[in-house]
Amino acid sequence: MKILLINPEVPNTFWSLKHALNFVSKKALLPPLGLLTVAAMLPESFEKKLIDMNVTRLRDRHLKWADMVFLTGMVIQKKSVDHIIERCKKLNVKIAAGGPLFTAFPEAYLTIDHLVLKEAEITLPTFLKDLQKGCPEPYYTTRERPDLKETPIPQWDLINMKKYGLMGIQYSRGCPFNCDFCDVTRLFGHVLRTKTKEQIIAELDSLYAAGWRGELFFVDDNFIGEKNVLKKELLPAMIQWMEQKNNPFCFNTQASMNLADDDELMTLMVRAGFDCVFIGVESPDETSLTECHKTQNTGRDLVAAIKKIQQFGLQVQAGFIVGFDGDKPGVFDRMINLIQDSGVVTAMVGLLNAPRGTNLYKKLMSENRLTEPPTGDNMDCTMNFIPRMDIHELLGGYQKVLNTIYSQKYYCKRIKTFLENYNFADAIMPKVRYSSIKAFFRATWRIGVIEKGKFHYWKLILWSLKKPRRLPLVVRFSIYGFHFRKMLKSIRFQMNELAAASANAGNSVG
Ligand code: B12
Ligand code: SF4
Fold this sequence. Notes:
Layout: E1 2-7, H1 18-21, H2 33-41, E2 47-52, H3 60-65, E3 68-71, H4 78-91, E4 94-97, H5 100-104, E5 114-116, H6 120-133, E6 139-140, E7 167-169, E8 172-173, H7 184-188, E9 193-194, H8 197-209, E10 214-218, H9 227-244, E11 249-255, H10 263-272, E12 274-282, H11 286-291, H12 302-311, E13 315-322, H13 331-342, E14 347-351, H14 359-366, H15 391-405, H16 408-421, H17 434-450, H18 454-464, H19 471-504
Parallel strand pairs: 1-2, 1-3, 3-4, 4-5, 5-6, 7-10, 10-11, 11-12, 12-13, 13-14
Antiparallel strand pairs: 8-9
The protein binds cobalamin and iron/sulfur cluster.
Iron/sulfur cluster (SF4) binds at residues 175, 177-179, 182, 184-185, 221-222, 256, 280.
């Protein structure tokens, strides 16, 4: 049987880093790890091809080759998903679809031949059995959550690694916390399920053998959900592996703020090669943090906690949200101060949205405040509910935060704040490669010669030369900044349209 696995196109967003990837001649940030994992679960007798539409064009000849298309998707890929479904229908190619979009909105895709929902480790084997018997059902789902000990190594040979900025690896699923806007716990549960250290070492070996060097993203939603196992088992094994192989990788991941409370864990993570963590900081205000049950962030000095993590050798990227019921007009300035003072260079500020099934969604439904389904992009100026704050005030404040933190002046100031606090001593830094040198020259031309405000770039470069270890990070941040400024331009445009639309429709935003 011939299976064509398709990852639909993702629009250009703050998270896609598309403008930044151009500097290093990469097409996409990460490969579709879900599809690569699913591919590895298929029988060996199946022929497989994978088209990631973010790096390769999907042609009719690809579809005609296939006996069945295996389609994945996030909500943000909806437009491309709809287009693929239409093309498959025209060419009479059957589809089996799975992944977060279909699991969250199955009723919107009942015309698809086979929905294989939730985690494939459970639903896929039943589907495959039925398929081989010649009687596959239209709908497969489960209430169970699989043990990750059975999850295979992703099938790397289906992609061209050179097209991607990072490779992905997954250690755990689930998160013990209960933030009310987050659908990770609805998708993957509160009980953390992990792979064994042997599985992770085998995955590292497989990536190494496939020729990958450089950055690896642990895609876990909260890598530190089970600290003791990390400290006793996984991290020591990774430290040993990295030493043996002469540090071929550096790692980044997502973690909760309580990382700052555990010096031993931070030390071990840095020794293992972690140099960056993404943390959901969300809000400078205790009331808003309490409102959304972000208990791990309450009752602490957030700036001090972030700085402490940086001092251990981990860059902190962070997510922030405005639009909580408890947000007062002063929240915007407090958020700018928090971001600037803590030196979070990559700060992702979004408008609150309520994904379906979350506690926030249920609360808003009971208050009759839900509008349209979320678009899946928390930075496209849409909300799927009516906020408490006046919409113009909220959008104006949001715009002010974005305009300020991504302005060259504030952005460069933040880079300095971060680098002055960051401990390089123990960090395993990404090795300088040919592509980094090329990126430096491209950045110098694009940001240092062509772009407005170039003196900020040159000031920063000259400043970094006092301590040359800072230079690669300064160049990298400058390239990210270029992407953020480009995205901001399109957001401004959407903002204006949205403000006009909401003026016509009273206070609601959809
Ligand atoms: C890595 C990641 C990214 C990466 C890239 C993802 C990529 N190229 O695949 C980056 C950082 C770019 C990213 C970005 C975003 N992401 Co993201 N991301 C993740 C994350 C953390 C891990 C995904 C992953 O690799 N998992 C590991 C694999 C093995 O699991 P999986 O993909 O779920 O696949 C399993 C099943 O779903 C299923 N399956 C998947 N596909 C298929 C297909 C078939 C045919 C079958 C049978 C089964 C199947 O089987 C697999 C094995 O069990 C998830 C959260 C999570 N825990 O999954 C969020 C998540 C997928 N992201 C999400 C969102 C919202 C975003 C953003 C839109 C955020 C934003 N607000 O802007 C952006 C935008 C995208 C962009 N412009 O690039 C949401 C999606 C929600 C939804 N219902 O669609 C998630 C679930 C997190 C969340 N709850 O908020 N993301
Ligand atoms: S800590 Fe992160 S992953 Fe866990 S529930 Fe909160 S937002 Fe979701």
